[in-house]
Amino acid sequence: MKSTTPVSMDALLSRPEIKRIVDRVSPEEEERRTYAPPRCKAFARPVTILKETNEYSFFKDLEAKAKLPHIIDNPVQTIVGVTNPDQTQLDHYTRELRIGIVFSGGPAPGGHNVIAGLFDAMKKANPNSTLYGFFLGPDGVIEGQYIEITEPIINRYRNMGGFSMIRTGRTKIDSSAKTKQARETCLKLKLNALVIVGGDDSNTNAAFLAEELYKDGIQVIGVPKTIDGDIQVRDSQGKILCAMSFGYHTAARSFARNIGGLCVDSSSDVKYWHICKVMGRVASHLALEVALQTHANLTLIGEDLADYVDEERLAKAKAEGTTDYSAYGMTLRHLSRMICDAIIRRAKVGKNYGVIVIPEGVLEYINEIQLIITKLNTIIADYNHTHDKDFHTAFTTLESKLEYLRRLVRGIGPDISPALWNARDDELFNDMPEFFQKGLLLERDSHGNFQFSQVETDHVIMRMVKDYLNIQKEKGLYSLGVERSYFNSMLEREGLDPAIYGPIMFENYPDGEYLRIKNTIMSMKTLKQAFSRSGKLDPEAGLPSAIEKIYKKSVPKFKTQTHFFGYDGRGGDPTRFDCDYTYNLGQTVFSLVVNGATGQMAAIKNLEQEFPKWEPIGIPIAPLMRLEERAGRMTLVIEKSLVDLESNAFRVSKALREKWLAATPENDDYRSPGPIRFTGKSEEERPITLMLNSI
Asked: Which letter does DSSP use for residue 641 in this model?
């Protein structure tokens, strides 16, 4: 046998085909970088101008009027392309500009294209204009950490996910000291404008900065970013100005692809319920889109739960001549019963498996939990304010925190208000599992919000579900339907007559396609008793092995697998929709800056329509702000947009709940959304939510 000398590793790694195969840039990434998103028709003109419109009206908060006087009366501005600009327009549009851009908050797919769209527009207008990117979020503005963004840098990140180009951070420019430092940075770089790409809090920050920098002549523009989809702008008449923030479509598609795979796994292995928690701290937009994408068996929509009314309890109270106000709104107990009902109904037709989608913020819509959270937020904020130190530093263990709450009940201490935390609160709190108590007492985030993503919401709910299922099993109400053909064949193999044994065991023999064990048969013992009473079994003899096997098959084993979908969706490469959306947002930013706007949010109107109908606009941020409780204090913030229960998207999903639950012998109705495909044309052109709402 002829031996060969192995090629040296250096020689092997130097071969072009090896380099190509293991190169860091994949073929998909290479194609992404070369994709040129289409531009809205206004941007195809040599020059753009801003036109004010009085078509939209806003309710203006008195606090916003007082604190944001220079930008509170900003109008909605539409961006219009000029085909034959005069020399004055041309000179103004092509003047040299210096613009800074910063990412704020968590990543969202498409952020790099905001920078690319802005860069391309400003360089086309004047190649000498400069774009600076601030590192690690607002800290970069405060500390003066930045980079000049150039063509090679831009080309490396076109159409790519993440915020890797300049990275991001969660610092807020919310004090006079930070504002002073940010102003110094902007003045040092001689910036004409600062662009803040972020969520509701970041755009709120943009409004306050626009006010602070107004006299310096430094413009501030916000860009709506959040995968939660809770930045949706309507005027006071309900007219839609911004249907969705960027990154939502990609995150939803990423989650849907994985959850769709779990639907396939569930119906293949037929023994697991997959419990899928998806991001959405307040609004349930992601859960709704995932439901429409996958047809999961059960999807909880928080806003829908908040609207729940327990008609049975109301009727009972009415019969007693009283009104039960606690019947309005969902409780944890009733939510667990609702989930159990779905599980039991599927089990009756032999389906001991399924997929449940839960938004991470669902507990915010449970009355008793929301009350506890509100009280704890107030207690923690009051403690911090009164003692000028951090509650979580002062009480490091769960036991020490619980002891402080017990002192509130007993009214011990000069700073204690007994009405704030009473015996009923204490009783409800102590009934909760320890891990949930720890979750409720977690340190709040930098905005003072309760961190729902850190609480095992799915575990809280499913623990109650399992307890109730066990009770139903003991009552004989939770059993697994047995396929009639299987029952018949198993008995015939042992020479037994199904027509004799079937009526003894099953409540619906011989009519049902799936046979249900009688409620009175709850164990092997009661099964033997049923056969003994029928006279078909000698009390001294054992049950036929086929009967025992059939019974064991009818006893459900409730097994779950829990999953959290969040960070994977934030870092994915954007869908074609998000690529096009964000690139045009960047172009919109330039048009707003070059035409002198400040305190505006860049947006694309008609996102729910086909691309040719998209219209770039500037939306005033200040009129969107409302007073809300944050960290125990009333603060001006942009109001989050919740799922509209009157929208087509929600109404369609609600109408199809029974079909998707599939508690019938027919096949499940699972939908496979497929992967995010940048190279193909089979992917929907925009979120299903928006497509339905456009009809």
From this structure: P
Confidence at residue 652, expressed as pLDDT on a 0 to 100 scale: 98
Reduce the DSSP state of residue 341 to 3 states and report it.
Answer: helix
Question: If you write DSSP's letter for every residue of 424-456 in order, what string do you get?
Answer: HHHHHHHTS-HHHHHHHTSPP-TTS---GGGS-
Residues 250-471+560-568+646-693, CATH architecture: 3-Layer(aba) Sandwich (3.40)
Tokens (6 digits) for 153: 């840098």
Helices and strands (H, E) in the chain, number of each type: 30, 19
The predicted pLDDT at position 397 comes to 85
Give the span between the Cα atoms of 616 and 40, in whole angstroms.
7
Q: Tokens 């504002």 belong to which residue?
A: 179
- The answer to whether residue 568 is catalytic is no
Q: Where are the beta strands (DSSP E) in 209-310?
A: 219-224, 233-234, 240-242, 273-278, 298-299
Mean pLDDT across 543-553:
94
Q: How far apart are CA 352 and CA 478, in angstroms?
A: 11
Q: Across the chain, which distance is largest between two alpha carbons, in Å?
A: 107
Across 588-596, average pLDDT = 98
Q: Which residue has the tokens 């003045």?
A: 187
Indicate left, alpha or beta for 375 from its phi (over 0: left) and psi (-120 to 50: alpha). Answer: alpha
Domains 41-246+574-622 and 250-471+560-568+646-693 share a fold: yes
Q: How far apart are CA 108 and CA 229, in angstroms?
A: 11
* Overall residue count recorded for the chain in this entry: 695
E strands, 117-271, in order: 130-134, 146-148, 193-198, 219-224, 233-234, 240-242
CB count within 10 Å of CB 29 equals: 15
- Predicted pLDDT at 626: 92
Catalytic residue among 228, 230, 458, 580: 228
Q: Cα separation of 232 and 241, whole Å?
A: 8
Q: Which residues contact 670 (CB under 8 A, 6 or more apart)?
A: 260, 263, 264, 267, 294, 295, 296, 355
Closest listed residue to residue 130, CA positions, set 162, 95, 90, 178: 95
Average pLDDT, the chain: 91
CATH code assigned to 41-246+574-622: 3.40.50.450
Question: How is the chain split into domains, by residue range?
Answer: 41-246+574-622, 250-471+560-568+646-693, 479-554
pTM above 0.85, yes or no: yes
Distance CA 550, CA 545 (A): 9
